[in-house]
Amino acid sequence: LFLRDSPQQALETLADRLDVIERGGMPDSIILAYRTLAEVALRRGEEARSLEILVALRELSIVRALPRLQLGSLAEQVRLHATCGRVQSATELLTEIAAMRPVFAQPIYRALAPHFERRLALATAYACVGRSDFDGAELALATAALSTPSMRRSPDTLVARALQALVASERGRPEARDMLAEVLSLADLAGIRRYVEESHPRLRELSASVIAGGAPADASDAGPVQRAQSVGISAGASQ
Asked: What radius of gyration, in Å, describes the C-alpha atoms of the chain?
């Protein structure tokens, strides 16, 4: 419901059910519930509340001994801090994610290793874009955008491809608009266009240029991070 731009219905669906999901839910269910609450809070401009929810998810990961919950919490915190210009905070959290690699190398979690690598790559890309390290962002996005046929229209894959278009735009590459146009077309098919557009503040501006059929608006001498901050707070990203 949130992905399809019905946040109020998403909240109503979760009403009086979060405690049940926390106690007996599978990791996917728990992560989706917390991410939905965090995303809705962020869309409402309640950034502090969104962070509180993500921190609570990390605390729950310790209680339930579910490292995947911790991964989800940390990755979302990286995205939020990076898109709001808090690059140091994003980088510190990114280091914590990277330190989890041995956990997902254990036999019990080895099947989740590809998921870990994609989440780490997407979080790395956000942090790199935040500090204008576009070489690092492109390298990370090459991993984050990899997908199986069944994942080509998944939210995380489309967000990664949208960020690739953003990086291409920041580097002045003429193909950036066509790259984003294709991603937005796929997002339309999946019914999640707004989610993809809001995955980074600068994407809103680039998306508007795709609709208008012109070049992205020039923000004079402001750098990529300053331009991103001027657009507003992001509301969306990952699987």
From this structure: 17
Residue range 163-172, pLDDT digits in tens: 999 999 999 9
Backbone angles phi, psi at 6, to 5 degrees: -130, 65
CA gap 143, 121 in Å, rounded: 6
CA angle, residues 98, 60, 141, in degrees to nearest 5: 30
Alpha helices in the chain (DSSP H): 7-14, 18-24, 27-43, 47-64, 67-83, 87-98, 101-105, 113-130, 134-144, 155-170, 176-190, 193-197, 201-212, 224-231
pTM of the model: 0.84
- Residue 90 near residue 78 (C-beta atoms within 8 A): yes
| Sole residue written with tokens 């996917």 | 28
- State residue 149 phi and psi, 5-degree precision: -55, -35
In this prediction, residue 211 carries a pLDDT of 75
pLDDT tens digits for range 73-83: 999 999 999 99
